[in-house]
């Protein structure tokens, strides 16, 4: 066989072996429980139950038109108090946001940062 084809086959086998290894790896919870008693609740039930302090659904979303800078900084990933204050200042100067995509107009907020936080925001 040609060297290029051999390299391609080798890379494919290597990739498949790595993927199958990670597919069968135990989750971190299971690794932590090795050598301990079995948990009181079945793992499937434990995964579906959200922690008490973790917000879910609409309640977890923050309004970009009414939230304070502190609330925005807490809710948004990658946004500190300074960027959150820029959002509030922009809102006070230009009026309420009409769409979530309007956040891209705020100085210091890029498209990637806005995209990453859309699930945490509402109007």
Q: What's the architecture of the domain at 60-122 in CATH terms?
A: Orthogonal Bundle
Describe the largest sheet.
2 strands, parallel
Q: Helix count? A: 6
Helix and strand pattern: HHHEHHHE
Structural class: mainly alpha
CATH topology of the domain at 60-122: DNA polymerase, domain 1
Q: According to CATH, what is the class of the domain at 60-122?
A: Mainly Alpha
Region (Disordered): 30-63
Keywords: Repeat, Signal
GO cellular component, one term: type II protein secretion system complex
Biased composition (Low complexity): 36-56
Task: Write structural notes for this entry.
A two-stranded parallel sheet has the order 1-2. Mean pLDDT is 74; it is low at 44-56. The chain has helices spanning 3-23, 28-32, 43-48, 69-75, 81-94, 111-117, and strands spanning 62-63, 121-122. Helix content is 49%, strand content 3%. By secondary structure, it is mostly helical. The protein has a domain at 60-122: Photosystem II 12 kDa extrinsic protein (DNA polymerase, domain 1, Orthogonal Bundle), CATH 1.10.150.320.
């Amino acid at each position: 066989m040609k060297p290029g084809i051999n390299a391609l086959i080798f890379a494919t086998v290597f990739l498949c072996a790595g993927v199958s290894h990670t597919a069968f790896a135990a989750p971190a919870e299971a690794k932590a429980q090795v050598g301990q008693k079995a948990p009181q609740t079945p793992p499937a039930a434990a995964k579906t139950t959200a922690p008490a302090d973790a917000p879910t659904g609409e309640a977890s979303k923050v309004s970009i038109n009414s939230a304070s800078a502190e609330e925005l900084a807490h809710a948004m990933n990658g946004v500190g108090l300074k960027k959150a204050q820029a959002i509030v200042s922009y809102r006070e100067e230009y009026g309420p946001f009409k769409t979530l995509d309007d956040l891209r107009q705020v100085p210091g907020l890029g498209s990637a940062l806005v995209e990453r936080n859309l699930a945490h925001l509402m109007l």
